[in-house]
Write a structure and sequence with these properties.
By secondary structure, the chain is α+β, with helices and mostly antiparallel strands. It has a domain at 258-445. It is built from 14 helices and 11 strands. The chain has helices spanning 2-8, 12-28, 34-46, 53-80, 87-99, 106-145, 150-165, 173-217, 223-257, 320-333, 336-340, 366-372, 376-379, 385-389; strands spanning 263-270, 279-290, 293-298, 303-304, 345-346, 358-359, 403-408, 414-418, 424-430, 437-438, 441-445. Strands 1-2-3-11 form a 4-stranded antiparallel beta sheet. Strands 7-8-9 form a 3-stranded antiparallel beta sheet. Strands 4-10 form a two-stranded antiparallel ribbon. A hairpin with a 5-residue loop joins strand 8 and strand 9 (424-430). Helix 1 runs antiparallel to helix 2 and helix 5 (87-99) runs antiparallel to helix 6.
Length: 453
């Protein structure tokens, strides 16, 4: 408006010349923008026919278009060269180059942008696949680096398999997925066997006892029938022994996870319900954990045996109960693999190392019973039904029994004990007496490193 008003005040030719000059300056200015050039073109058109205004109008529009395309090209190049590379930014640059097709090699740059976007996409895809693959491998590596429960191990395997399934064809993902699923099934089978195996073990032992009775009832004759029964006994015993070894191996991982105060299963002994024959897992209480071993004591009195078989002066070293624990009980309660996990322990701390009684299975001393149980209530112990059936005393007040300790009692023929109320009794009971419960104690050496399946 200012230009037009100024022009109106002048003669016509002067007005046109003024407009022409202003338009030419705007178009020719070094900092002319697209808008300046288009405005200049408009001014030239307003004085059409004056000098070469028509030609200048076209040149102004051409320059405006050049500036527009150059701006788009420069913006697209900036996006194309931006770091870090962004796939979406490269695609936007390609679209800009497409909008000025044929300009300054824009078509080639468009292809460069598409290629760079595709390369970035592939890079991100590769990185993501590698991340997923590595995460799956890390889960499987935990199986050998950590001690995990069978439930945790199975879950990790299935999570790893799912991750491998998410990158089919990548590296060895397909084969690793199948391996992870197979391992998951192994962990599942182990978990089920650990839960159900003791029942099968019980059935086999009862079957063996029944067959032995049948064989005994045949007397001295009927040799072929006795031979057939013996073969069935041997077959059942072979399955029982193999199952005990298998279960013992599976328990190793549970033991490795245990901490003081936890209940654990280890070994098998007479049925808790007192039924004829059969075996049930021995339940233990973890008293201490030192590096790679556990100190445990049976949660219940597992049997009823006198401290000594004769009424005489007796010490733990000479007691018949010590011989029974490390002989008959040790052989019956633990399979070969479990026996190897039970080290000898010096049970007389007053002697030099290596001297005195060395026991695999022992009773707690009075000092240990006071150290590992912080109250009378925690020392209270009920007998198994089997032990009760063997004559173990049952308190009418709380259903608990008294149990032997290995420390000497108040009289030379006595041994210390824990009363049914959990109190420590230094005087104890006469070793030849009956009714005392047996709570075996032992150390369990755990295999080094994470326990496997």
């Amino acid at each position: 408006m200012e230009i037009e008003e100024t022009a109106l005040e002048q003669p016509e030719n002067a007005r046109k010349d003024f407009i022409y000059t202003v338009a030419l300056k705007r178009m020719s200015d070094r900092g002319a923008t697209e808008a300046d050039c288009r405005q200049a073109a408009g001014l030239f058109r307003s004085v059409a026919g004056w000098k070469d205004a028509d030609v200048k109008a076209e040149k102004a529009l051409e320059k405006a278009e050049t500036i527009r395309k150059d701006a788009i090209y420069d913006a697209a190049m900036e996006m194309l060269n931006r770091t870090p590379v962004d796939e979406n930014v490269c695609l936007e640059a390609a679209i800009l180059f497409q909008s000025i097709s044929g300009w300054r090699g824009a078509d080639d740059r468009r292809e460069d942008a598409f290629d760079k976007a595709e390369a970035e996409r592939l890079r991100k895809e590769t990185a993501e696949k590698n991340r997923i693959y590595a995460e799956a491998e890390e889960k499987l590596e935990r199986l050998s680096a950590e001690v995990l429960s069978y439930e945790e191990a199975e879950a990790l395997c299935r999570e790893a398999a799912e991750l491998f399934a998410g990158v089919p064809g990548w590296k060895n993902a397909d084969a690793e997925k199948e391996k992870a699923l197979e391992r998951a099934e192994i962990e599942k089978d182990a978990r089920i066997l650990l839960a159900q195996g003791p029942d099968r073990l019980d059935e086999l032992q009862k079957k063996i006892d029944r067959l032995k009775k049948e064989k005994q009832q045949l007397g001295f004759f009927r040799g072929s029938e006795k031979q057939a029964l013996q073969e069935r006994i041997d077959k059942a015993a072979e399955e029982r022994d193999a199952l005990r070894v298998q279960i013992a191996g599976l328990r190793g991982r549970v033991l490795a996870l245990a901490k003081p105060g936890d209940p654990v299963s280890f070994g098998d002994y007479a049925r808790e319900d007192g039924a004829s024959g059969g075996l049930r897992p021995i339940e233990w209480l973890v008293l201490a954990k030192e590096k790679n071993r556990l100190l445990v004591i049976s949660r219940q009195a597992v049997d009823c045996v006198p401290y000594h078989t004769s009424q005489s002066q007796v010490s733990w070293e000479d007691s018949s109960l010590r011989q029974w624990l490390n002989g008959e009980f040790f052989q019956k309660a633990f399979c070969a693999g479990e026996q190897e996990m039970i080290p000898e322990t010096q049970t007389d701390p007053d002697r030099e190392p290596g001297e005195g009684p060395q026991d695999r299975v022992f009773l707690l001393s009075s000092q240990e019973a006071g150290r590992y149980f912080d109250s009378d209530a925690r020392r209270q112990c009920a007998p198994t039904a089997f032990a009760a059936g063997r004559g173990c005393y049952l308190s009418p007040e709380n259903g608990c029994c008294w149990w032997w300790l290995r420390s000497p009692g108040g009289v030379t023929s006595y041994a210390a004990s824990v009363f049914p109320d959990g109190s420590l009794q230094g005087k104890g009971f006469e070793g030849f007496g009956s009714g005392g419960g047996i709570r075996p104690a032992l150390w369990i050496e755990l295999p080094p490193g994470p326990a496997g399946t």
